[in-house]
Amino acid sequence: MSKLLLEIQGLRKQYGALEVLKGVDCTMREGEVISIIGSSGSGKTTMLRCINMLEDFQAGRIVLDGEEIGYEQSNGTRRRKSEKDIARQRALTGMAFQQFNLFPHMTAAQNVMLGLIKVKKMPRDEARAVAEKWLDRVGLAARADHHPGQLSGGQQQRVAIARAIAMSPRLMLFDEVTSALDPELVGEVLQVIKGLAADGMSMLIVTHEMRFAYEVSSRVIFMNQGVIGEEGDPKEMFANPRTERLAEFLKTSSFN
Length: 256
Hints:
The chain is 36% helix and 27% strand. It has nine helices and twelve strands. The chain has helices at residues 44-51, 83-90, 108-118, 124-137, 153-166, 183-198, 210-216, 234-239, 244-252, and strands at residues 4-15, 18-29, 33-37, 59-64, 67-68, 71-74, 77-80, 93-96, 171-175, 203-206, 219-224, 227-232. Strands 8-9-10-3-11-12 form a six-stranded mixed β-sheet, sandwiched between helices. 40% of the residues are buried.
């Protein structure tokens, strides 16, 4: 059995009086691809953002690759780690968002190279070689010297994915990466993620593409009102949902 990569225990997150995550527990092993599905507002994206400390959380533990993320216990007191520590831990994950967040004045290759040079202190020629490798991997070798404005939405998202993966994260996080794309561009991005799954990359994917979740995932987590309502093998879950809430959700989703 592969190594335990991620462990979440009793994760709670509030925005003021609103409790978004109400005690989430889950584990993930190396090489797993887990899709997180559920209605808008169920806590899917918040969970991802807590894993890489884009959001603070009020209670619980997140352990990634053996390290407790974001906080430490000292004399019975929970304390936020230093910004330097958190920045280092953030590099354990790569994240691709709904919006591509590319720098418009930089070419595709320069966007991918930036983190390698600034964060990993890689020499420019080495960073360029890594950028070219990953742009080729996402089918954009011929677009390396194009600026984002010269690329379609799907191509920009593939550059954003290449940029995240080039940093060699232990875990890739995808947050609704197709939701800002025109329908005809969705397939090309999902195809890239399927290829990464086939390569054995560890991935947590928040998605509303049910057919994709069904095909690519080793496991699916159904979030419902801030807790995990159900989880398991996608084929079993989609064919025989154990809860009424999941059955309702699948009826109204794009899965058929």
